[in-house]
Amino acid sequence: MAATRSFALALMRFWKHLAKLLTSQGVLLMLLSLAVFASFRYETFLTPLNLMNIMRQNSMLAIVALGMTVVILSGGIDLSVGSLVALGGVVAAMLAGQGSFVAIIGGIASTTLLGVVNGLLVSHARLQPFVVTLFTASAARGLALSITEEKSIAVPPTASGLVWLGRGFIASVPVPVIIVALLYFAAWFMLHRSRLGLHMFAVGDNEEASRLMGVNPNRVKLAVYTFSGLLSGLAGVILAGRLGAGQPVAAFGWETDAIAATVMGGTFLVGGQGSVFPTLVGVLLLGMMYNLLNLEGTITPWWQLVLRGGFLLMVVIFQQRIAQRD
Predict the structure, then answer these.
(1) DSSP 89
(2) Which one of 39, 52, 202, 324 has the fewest beta carbons within 10 angstroms of its own beta carbon?
(3) What is the model's pLDDT at position 32?
(4) What is the largest CA-CA distance in the chain?
(5) CA of 116: how far to CAs of 100, 122, 203, in Å?
(6) What are the start-end ranges of the E strands in 196-310?
(7) Residues 54 and 291: beta-carbon distance below 8 Å
(8) CA nearest 306: which of 250, 253, 248?
């Protein structure tokens, strides 16, 4: 009897530790498992060219997802990021004739301004983030289509700095990948080693309690939406440099991918819990999934959207179960 009881207790502890591991590192385990599967099924998967393409192609989404993570941590949502990426790229391409510096600053400034608008409407006008950012998404996309007359704007060859930002390399590493690494380390430090980061977690966990503790939720909300707008513009500028053109229809649906990567990384949609590096793993997992579907070649892009939506739904349900258990 004693041996049976000891075995049962050991089994319970094992399942408890396994559940804890899946909760904290589940997305990383999924990424590694998928990589092992792909390495056996596809000969070209582990080639340096394919792996580098996965990182480079998803670097812009990683930047957008970083901004989304910060917004969701504070208890909000930003549905305008995809449209802001398109607008930032279009503005950069239109200003590229005046030099790369002007193009980069102009593209980022345009979306940062709209991020400030989002923050002010959410914090001071007390409007719901869903409604505010949905309006901004529509307005930004419409503005991008209007100023370009629904046409792509080519980046002139003279804007070498802008092109380098999207296509360049530093010691055989793509520039966008280096930018992503620097941004994520900076964001991690800001969230976990600064007062602003602690305030973001506090507001996302319980806004009223944070206000009683002396935190100003309005400032936090303004900061996170401004940050998200800035990063969306940066992603748009890099995308324009990589494509050689600003496209008003670019980044369609990126807000869904950014939310999916953030949620898969363990950031709860209700706010107050999460981190940035798991979001990056979530971006890589999404990118790897798309890469494998392309290598498979039997699933159309439309069915890929269905699979992506179903996968996101499963992750949200899993999160809800964990939250209820806690």
Answers:
(1) H
(2) 324
(3) 85
(4) 82
(5) 24, 10, 18
(6) 245-246
(7) yes
(8) 253
Residue for token pair 């976990």: 192
| Cβ neighbours of residue 299 closer than 8 Å, sequence gap 6 or more | 293, 307
Say if residue 27's pLDDT is above 90: no
Could you tell me which of 150, 136, 151 has the C-alpha nearest to residue 82?
A: 136
Query: pLDDT: is 124 or 32 the higher one?
Result: 124
Contact 201, 122 (CB under 8 A): no
pLDDT at 18: 47
Please give the pLDDT value at position 134.
97
Distance of alpha carbon 241 from alpha carbon 92, whole angstroms: 9
DSSP 112-173: HHHHHHHHHHHHTS---HHHHHHHHHHHHHHHHHHHHTT--EEPPTT-HHHHHHHH-EETTE
Count CB neighbours of 228 within 10 A: 31
- Which two three-digit tokens encode residue 105? 């600053």
Q: What residues have CB less than 8 Å from 168, skipping those under 6 apart?
A: 174, 175
Beta strand pairing status for 245-246 and 169-170?
unpaired
Whether residue 14 has pLDDT greater than 80: no
Which residue do the tokens 């000969």 mark?
43
C-beta of residue 94 within 8 angstroms of C-beta of residue 147: yes
| pLDDT for position 323 | 57
Mean pLDDT across the stretch 165-194?
Answer: 95
Those residues whose C-beta lies under 8 Å from the C-beta of residue 274, and which sit 6 or more positions away, are 69, 72, 73, 262, 265, 266, 267, 268
